Q: What sequence folds into this?
């Protein structure tokens, strides 16, 4: 499978560069001076408890609304000034399900293709390729309503990759899934990074989804508390592992495990 | 540091063909959804047909209509209210379409649309066009049934009405779109439906000619004159008889442009209500 497209400008810039980003809902500040980078072709975990500001950050990065403070660049393209260029390089899986339940899997995918200017034939070809990659070929004609939660998530990820983005954003993609489906989803996404050189920003509050090979950005109460390779973040914050480092950083006694969160 | 917004957002890179693919994709999706929701299709037809078969038949003897343009002779009351019912179909559809946007926003489907790299104004106009296309389909099915009920406008009227339906469909869609941007939850929207649809419908020339309204209440007459629905009804009424009401056209075109611009601003990522309130997903 070839899911990315090369662009010279893209090779020099980080996949995502967030600088001094701030956002408030009325008087309540959801993000305050947030800065971090997501390297191209790496798996980066945005780790934060519920209410840390992860979904607000996703809304700003995907330009659902504009950042009033700070800048966001996707492969060097400012999301406010060149939204088209930035958004076509992004694939997004939101926390809430965004599939049309009454349409078939294939219809959902070809609709997304049209939203990126991809013609019907090309869209169907790409969709077939994606469904094969995500082991969903046999469900392509089924209505989304009939799929399990894990299968819906895989369809959403397949859809997010259909226009061949170079950066994939996933907001709490495993919430509500059983252990097997969760492992399946993470496995697929990690394979994308390894085999297809796609940068991933994986937002989660589940600490066991972080591995030693990852980059991590710790977001807490709208601020970035730490950023870098997991090993460095652990060392710098006096922890034995990412769990204790996170606890030291945020003051949380113990981050929630997946079983507690389910 | 503050993000600069001085330069206009750039959406370079898409060809005209790709813009067309996007538009067709949105219309196709909306049509599929409509066809899958048979109850919606039936409800959209039953409502005006009830008015035509029961209300109009019952009031035929009570409410006489004198000769007023575009009619050149006395007409039955059923004939008089048919354009109003056509406009009602489009008004309900416009609001229904907005209702689906509020639903999509709550469910998160709206995000799929809004993170497309095409300009947001184009996505919104495409969405409006999709709703308008569905409403035109409903209108023609209604007119076919009405023809069996001996509502027989001149054949040219069926063609002449099409541009009027396009314009009115966009007008009601734009009003609905603007309303949907102001409403945070689906429950609130039901209230606005009652405060918008029924007043617009009753305070218009849909059910009674304006000269009759003026006779009974000059104030209501002025309200009707200010109601864009009145002019949409008149535009459709004249078109259905192969004529053009220039004033109605100017007012409908003007209000469509005004509501459309307001709706686009309301959904603008930098300036709109959506940004101030927490965004189309509502989540923070």
A:
């Amino acid at each position: 499978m070839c899911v990315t497209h090369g662009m010279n400008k893209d090779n020099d810039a980080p996949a995502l560069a967030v600088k001094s980003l701030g956002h408030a809902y009325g008087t309540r500040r959801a993000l305050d001076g947030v800065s971090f980078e997501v390297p191209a072709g790496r798996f980066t975990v945005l780790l934060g408890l519920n209410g840390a500001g992860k979904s607000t950050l996703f809304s700003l990065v995907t330009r659902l609304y504009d950042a009033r403070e700070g800048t966001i660049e996707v492969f060097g393209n400012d999301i406010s000034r060149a939204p088209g260029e930035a958004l076509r390089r992004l694939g997004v899986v939101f926390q809430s399900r965004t599939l049309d339940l009454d349409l078939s899997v294939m219809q959902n995918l070809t609709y997304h293709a049209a939203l990126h200017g991809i013609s019907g034939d090309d869209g169907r070809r790409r969709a077939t390729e994606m469904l094969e990659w995500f082991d969903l070929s046999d469900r392509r004609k089924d209505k989304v309503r009939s799929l399990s939660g894990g299968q819906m998530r895989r369809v959403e990820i397949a859809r997010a990759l259909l226009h061949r983005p170079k950066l994939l954003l996933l907001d709490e993609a495993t919430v509500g899934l059983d252990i097997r489906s969760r492992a399946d989803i993470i496995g697929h996404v990690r394979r994308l990074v390894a085999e297809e050189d796609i940068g991933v920003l994986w937002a989660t509050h589940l600490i066991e989804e972080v591995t030693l090979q990852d980059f991590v950005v710790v977001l807490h109460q709208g601020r970035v508390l730490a950023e870098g390779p997991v090993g460095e973040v652990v060392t710098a914050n006096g922890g034995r592992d990412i769990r204790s480092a996170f606890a030291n950083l945020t003051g949380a006694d113990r981050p929630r495990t997946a079983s507690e969160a389910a | 540091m503050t993000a600069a917004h001085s330069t206009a957002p750039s959406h370079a890179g898409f060809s005209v063909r790709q813009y067309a693919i996007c538009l067709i994709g949105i219309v196709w999706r909306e049509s599929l959804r409509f066809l899958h929701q048979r109850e919606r299709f039936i409800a959209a037809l039953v409502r005006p047909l009830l008015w035509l078969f029961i209300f109009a038949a019952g009031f035929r003897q009570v409410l006489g209509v004198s000769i007023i343009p575009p009619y050149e002779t006395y007409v039955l009351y059923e004939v008089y209210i048919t354009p109003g019912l056509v406009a009602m179909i489009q008004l309900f559809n416009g609001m229904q379409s907005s209702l689906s946007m509020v639903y999509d926003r709550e469910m998160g489907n709206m995000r799929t649309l809004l993170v497309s790299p095409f300009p947001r104004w184009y996505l919104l106009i495409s969405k409006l066009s999709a709703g308008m296309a569905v409403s035109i389909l409903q209108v023609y099915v209604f007119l076919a049934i009405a023809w069996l009920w001996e509502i027989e406008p001149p054949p040219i009227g069926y063609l002449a009405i099409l541009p009027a339906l396009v314009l009115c469909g966009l007008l009601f869609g734009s009003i609905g779109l603007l309303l949907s941007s102001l409403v945070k939850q689906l429950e609130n929207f039901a209230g606005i439906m009652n405060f918008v649809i029924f007043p617009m419908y009753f305070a218009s020339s849909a059910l009674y000619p304006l000269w009759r309204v003026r006779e009974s209440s000059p104030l209501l007459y002025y309200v009707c004159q200010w109601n864009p629905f009145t002019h949409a009804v008149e535009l459709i009424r004249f078109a259905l008889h192969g004529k053009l009401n220039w004033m109605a056209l100017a007012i409908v075109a003007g209000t469509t442009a005004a509501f459309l611009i307001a709706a686009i601003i309301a959904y603008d990522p930098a300036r709109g209500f959506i940004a101030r309130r927490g965004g189309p997903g509502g989540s923070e």
Notes: The CA atoms of residues 135 and 154 of chain A lie 9 Å apart. Strands of chain A lie at 16-25, 28-38, 43-47, 69-74, 77-78, 90-93, 167-171, 199-204, 215-220, 223-229.
